[in-house]
Design a protein that fits this description.
Pfam families: HMA (PF00403). The chain is built from 1 helix and 3 strands; from the N terminus they run βαββ. It has one helix at 13-25, and strands at 2-6, 29-35, 40-45. A hairpin with a 4-residue loop joins strand 2 (29-35) and strand 3. It is elongated and about 35 Å long.
Amino acid sequence: MKMTLKIGGMHCAACSRAVERALKKTEGIEEANVNIATEKAVFNYDEKRLNMMI
């Protein structure tokens, strides 16, 4: 399943890399991309392995 989240407060490329790394380390997330210009994180996840409360 694919999800897009708006993420504000990122001020530099290091911020977006940190968010992307954290997402990729999360069990159940298969792919993640964070774009500082659009302030969005897009990721694919296995809904059976990842329990999100958003």
